[in-house]
Prior knowledge:
By secondary structure, the chain is α+β, with helices and mostly antiparallel strands.
Amino acid sequence: MTSTYDDIEEGDLPEHRRSPPPVDFSKVDPSKPEDLLKMSKKGRTLMVFATVSGNPSEKETEEITGLWQGSLFNANYDVQRFVVGSNRVIFMLRDGSLAWEVKDFLVAQQRCADVTVEGQVFPGSMAKKDKAKETQQNEVNIKKKGRKTDGKTEVVNGNHASNLKQEL
Length: 168
């Protein structure tokens, strides 16, 4: 008995049945592992996950990420978008080698908190600002409360609080 896929041409096979494109290792720079990933994902479908910063509604996420998708489309990137939560979206690319270029675009967007490609999380421009603002706010709170730290313990008005960092 023959397989149902034996009589079908390579280009017409489902993606998971096609043989992967050959990777020319002579063109791969060993100092840039991202290049190897790009080459291995060429011609393969890849999902890129993005998180919208703040606390957007699903409609707001739909509008913001729709603008991102439109910009990517205008730059000739074939992406489909699926909203999967109130602040989460999936961009599906038919050519996975373009995922890192799409990631670079997304992390530069004002409302992008983070982007995940192949399990690796990249903070967005908004996440960097939020982190800096959070650090600055913590410093202000410490100054307001008169706390002093020596790295291991926190001193509040002359009294020692519990250790911040435990020695193992």
